[in-house]
Specification:
Largest sheet: none
Helix content: over 70%
Structural class: mainly alpha
Distance between the termini: 28 Å
Number of helices: 14
Radius of gyration: 21 Å
Strand content: under 5%
Shape: globular
Length: 346
């Protein structure tokens, strides 16, 4: 890693730490940073019991979830944009998010119609059912994509197949909504808005542990991604098995998206915007730099969005998807305009 990369990388790491602390401090109840420090390290600073509960049972799980989800979606988006050589490719491009949504739709929308009891009334058991349904739906789509990747050779063809899978999944979801009861439709719509506050209790530990394993493993694909940038012919001449490499990258990206979608719902724009932002900041296409940069930038941007979603003065929290779109869309547009100006100047 070049020396010029260290400073912005350390600044990003510092920004993640600062934003994490701000997420613990700010909200409907403001808690001083000194009190947060005492609570986190178990020091006796006469902090109230209510503050302890707010930190450990609410804000800490949400901040950890936002950090890991932002990192996972951003790394996945970078992998997708590289393997498809498409700047508009994102984590949902292969229909994995749509598959997770379809799995949730089957469980949520049919629970009241067939079982006579809405899933939202089952409490913790209903949350576990949602998570398992989302993972099952996402992995089912992943299996279809893996099968298709072995049958087709073109990146564009596989991309179109993923988009068509998404359309089919949305069509089935529309049919399920038509035959579902109102309470189940409302529960599904709320899930579809995305939230970092849905993960709590033991689910946080499971989610963080899974992401802590998957994210470092994705860094092992840095060399493969760099070779794919050279084009299939050059990469093949350098000894890379193109089909196997594409399979590994798509599989890694799809699993990251599946896990994040299962626990947080479909989160839009982070995976699309962050890779562009990192390329603009570091001025490189080397994935040994872009992968850790995307991880840190994605975490920071997710923490910013979560902070905006529950700004002091709001009752409850805004939908995370609305905030990520408001933050992510201008980032992508500004980067693309800047790139176009640079191309003109050259």
């Amino acid at each position: 890693m070049k020396p010029s990369v260290f400073l912005p990388m350390w600044l990003l790491a510092g920004a993640v730490v600062l934003l994490f602390l701000l997420n613990l401090s700010l909200g409907s109840v403001s808690i001083p940073l000194r009190s947060i420090w005492n609570i986190l390290w178990g020091m006796d600073g006469n902090e109230s019991f209510i503050w302890h509960n707010i930190i450990w049972k609410s804000r800490m799980p949400q901040a950890l979830t936002a950090t890991m989800a932002g990192a996972g979606l951003s790394v996945s988006g970078l992998q997708m944009q590289t393997v498809f050589r498409n700047p508009l490719a994102g984590p949902s491009v292969l229909g994995v998010s749509s598959g997770a949504s379809l799995g949730v739709a089957f469980v949520v929308l049919l629970s009241g119609s067939l079982g006579g009891r809405a899933l939202s009334q089952l409490g913790a058991m209903g949350e576990v059912a949602l998570t398992l349904a989302a993972i099952g739906g996402a992995l089912a789509v992943m299996a279809l994509i893996v099968y298709a990747s072995q049958k087709v050779h073109g990146h564009v063809t596989l991309l179109i197949i993923g988009v068509m899978i998404g359309y089919v999944a949305n069509a089935v979801i529309g049919v399920l909504k038509f035959f579902s009861v109102e309470e189940d439709i409302r529960a599904y719509v709320i899930w579809g808005l995305g939230s970092f506050a849905r993960v709590s209790g033991n689910q946080v530990t499971i989610f963080v542990c899974i992401m802590a394993v998957l994210l470092p493993l994705s860094f092992l694909l840095a060399k493969t991604l760099n070779l794919l940038l050279l084009g299939d012919a050059y990469a093949r001449n350098l000894g890379l098995n193109i089909r196997q490499a594409r399979l590994w990258v798509i599989g890694c990206s799809g699993i990251l998206v599946a896990i994040v979608t299962a626990y947080c719902g479909p989160i839009a724009f982070l995976g699309l915007a962050v890779p562009h932002l990192c390329r603009n900041i570091f001025r490189t296409s080397d994935h040994r730099v872009l992968l850790p940069a995307s991880l840190l930038t994605g975490s920071a941007l997710a923490l910013i969005c979560h902070l905006i979603a529950r700004l002091p003065g709001f009752e409850g929290a805004l939908p995370v998807n609305s905030v990520t779109a408001l933050v992510g869309a201008p980032v992508v547009v500004s980067v693309l305009f800047k790139k176009r100006r640079n191309d003109w100047s050259e």
